[in-house]
Amino acid sequence: MNALESFFILLGGLWAGTINTVVGSGTLVTFPILIALGVAPVMAVVSNAMGLIAGGISGTWGYRRELSGMRANLRRLMPASILGGITGAALLLHLPESVFALVAPALIVLALALVIFQPKLQRAIKARRDAGPSTRSHDAAMVVLVYLAGVYGGYFVAAQGVLLVAILGIFMSGTLQNANAVKNVLSLSVNVVAAISYLIFAPEKIIWQVVALIAVSSLAGGFIGARIGRKLPPLVLRSVIVVLGLVALFFMIQKLVAP
Length: 259
Description:
Layout: H1 3-22, H2 27-36, H3 41-62, H4 71-94, H5 97-116, H6 118-131, H7 135-155, H8 160-171, H9 176-201, H10 208-229, H11 234-257
Helix pairs in contact: 1-2, 1-3, 1-10, 2-3, 3-9, 3-10, 4-7, 4-9, 5-8, 5-11, 6-8, 7-8, 7-9, 8-9
């Protein structure tokens, strides 16, 4: 890998770490770069996911204040994310990419719908929560959806954050910034367990130079993203999520229809 190729990967990792902390979909920057440089798709997914762990750590640290009061939610949701990440990593290593490519666009459309209608849905759920009996069913639905987002994240990584913010913004009490902070922790959990799976079952698919370049640059990007994302009002943050979700959908469909 020459100096120019390394520069592009570093630049992509910086942007990916920044945007992952703000909302997610940073992989839609790094993945196309790796593919353009001739990296095989599965090796690109694996190496990218491992490199972005560093950005997840810095982004989570930058959002630590927004995690205040979220401990109970994390205890309930992290096992679901971890199990989903393991499931998704297993799918990546054993199924052809074409299988999940058929499902991914539908997941992104669902995520965008959840984000757009999140305020109205959140008010409706809050009203039902105040009534009392439906709380458990809402919590169960959130856990199941977080697990499915973990499966998606363990398989492809990209836009996992969009799915998680949509889910958490509707079902979890707190602000959208709280949801974003929890999203960072859950996404990091998925990437870590997926990386462990890759190390154990498919070390030959890891390109360590790519991992190192993305790790260094995404670490810096995570800190930058936390400074930007924490200052965004809910409407702006939601708009960013929708725009990036549409970008993700475009890339997914383009990949699906490509010969």
